[in-house]
Amino acid sequence: xxxxxxxxxxxxxxxxxxxxxxxxxxxxxxxxxxxxxxxxxxxxxxxxxxxxxxxxxxxxxxxxxxxxxxxxxxxxxxxxxxxxxxxxxxxxxxxxxxxxxxxxxxxxxxxxxxxxxxxxxxxxxxxxxxxxxxxxxxxxxxxxxxxxxxxxxxxxxxxxxxxxxxxxxxxxxxxxxxxxxxxxxxxxxxxxxxxxxxxxxxxxxxxxxxxxxxxxxxxxxxxxxxxxxxxxxxxxxxxxxxxxxxxxxxxxxxxxxxxxxxxxxxxxxxxxxxxxxxxxxxxxxxxxxxxxxxxxxxxxxxxxxxxxxxxxxxxxxxxxxxxxxxxxxxxxxxxxxxxxxxxxxxxxxxxxxxxxxxxxxxxxxxxxxxxxxxxxxxxxxxxxxxxxxxxxxxxxxxxxxxxxxxxxxxxxxxxxxxxxxxxxxxxxxxxxxxxxxxxxxxxxxxxxx
Length: 449
Fold this sequence. Notes:
Blueprint: E1 4-8, H1 12-24, E2 28-32, H2 35-44, E3 49-53, H3 59-71, E4 77-81, H4 85-95, E5 99-102, H5 107-137, H6 147-159, E6 166-169, H7 176-185, E7 194-198, H8 208-215, H9 224-228, E8 232-236, H10 243-262, E9 273-278, H11 282-287, H12 293-299, E10 302-305, H13 316-331, E11 337-338, H14 340-347, H15 354-368, E12 373-374, H16 402-419, H17 424-431, H18 435-445
Parallel strand pairs: 1-2, 1-3, 3-4, 4-5, 6-9, 6-10, 7-8, 8-9, 11-12
Helix pairs in contact: 5-7, 13-15, 16-17, 16-18, 17-18
């Protein structure tokens, strides 16, 4: 399909000249003589690129770029103007445009810039598709409004492009496999296979290659090592390996590392990133001799601990909201969500089953409800026993300073954004937090910068 280029130009001759040049180069030009007509085109047609003149100076013209930025943040925009290159480049940066060209526009320069911009848009599209696929495959949503989860995702971000093995610890039901999938998908291995091996099913009679074979899709290559090479292997509950399987795994890791280090072309090496998880006390299993210390060290290139749900109660409303959006269309189409008193009631529970238990609770509640909103009194009866505490308990650690902290942080973040003209990267640097942490705070507090 031809790439559609919206040409926003009030000079008829230049508009027609640009349209003819683009048609000859295989693009599909769509013409607009001003901001309102351009906006109407965007609302009714699929636009891949925008070529916009800075000479549009009416009120609607001045608002066009901000509207475009809000409507399509990844839509590449190229500015044109009769100005020197320095001023034009400055205007492009100020308005968030992909690039800028001097008038009269040279056809070769225009085509080159359009090609690069279109490639960038396609890359953004692929990344969005990949992210949706990752989210579809995740056992539990990755939500981070609490400090423990923000810290966790910062570690994940730093570890993404490394090749060191990753050991993921945490209680049962915290979503360890979801973290492993995020690590895999956001790395350079994202398009390669992600293998999951349940170590509880392995024994000395099941060699590692057979485990690969049993975990791969049937349609893939019969050569298990070739299939997994370039991808990631996730060893679920690695501490469940028997002693013989631990020895076999360690020998496999050492042999492959030696082959890759020597770079012997006659020997086959398999490029795998190893990830392992356990719900057990890892240090204790090593200290007691149940798990080999040398294997533990080999698997612990990066250590990631996934917090329990009771350690991240601040995330609970967002998690519930996600689960309602996921399950309500099938179980309770008219449901609008959980009320504040219901969420407060849930916040007092210790959640021994973590996210798995929360999902089960939401599904059960949606199945039973006939109301538009789940309130405290409409929760299942066993959720209202003494384990959950009283909603009015002033000593609740989850809510004692929450409102004050939210108000304070919201004002500080807004001040930092204003001081940096809305630049979130600079604002994060001023606030001495990571860019990712700032984005989560903005989303959590509903800040409109």
